[in-house]
Specification:
alpha/beta, 4 helices, globular, Transcription Regulator spoIIAA
């Protein structure tokens, strides 16, 4: 099963000593974000800057479908996770459908809480990549 396979509009990667991320936004306004390793407060600041760049570069897009793959991720500091959650809360109107999948228990619990607090009706926190892609593709 595939997701976000159209032509790339935006593609950024970031590598630090402890982890990495990749963000791809396609011409169909599908966003694929992959987080690996341990996220630090500094790496999450960089991640939020990249997400803000997308928000400012493409201000009038249709709502974005986003798949966030945490399969290779490890627990990030709670402060870093809350920073990302706060950013998402302020931009929830830009997200039409969101699937977070594959991460360790604590980040997945926080993702579930953020989506619930934000009132995101089309958000799911799922165990596997396959479940996430099935959800994003309407299954």
């Amino acid at each position: 099963m595939v997701f976000a396979t159209g032509k790339d509009e935006f593609d950024r990667t970031h590598q630090s000593e402890r982890g990495s991320y990749e963000i791809i936004l396609t011409e169909q306004w599908d966003l694929r974000m992959t987080l690996r390793g341990v996220g630090t407060v500094d790496s999450f600041r960089h991640l939020i800057d990249t997400l803000e760049e997308i928000d400012q570069t493409y201000p009038n897009t249709p709502k974005i479908r986003a798949g966030v793959d945490l399969t290779g991720g490890e627990n990030a500091p709670l402060r870093a996770q809350m920073m990302l959650g706060k950013w998402l809360l302020s931009r929830r109107h830009r997200v039409g459908k969101l699937a977070v999948f594959g991460g360790p228990p604590l980040p997945m619990k926080i993702a579930r809480a953020v989506c619930s607090i934000a009132g995101m009706k089309e958000a799911a926190v799922l165990l596997t990549r396959e479940d996430g892609l099935r959800y994003l593709n309407g299954g």
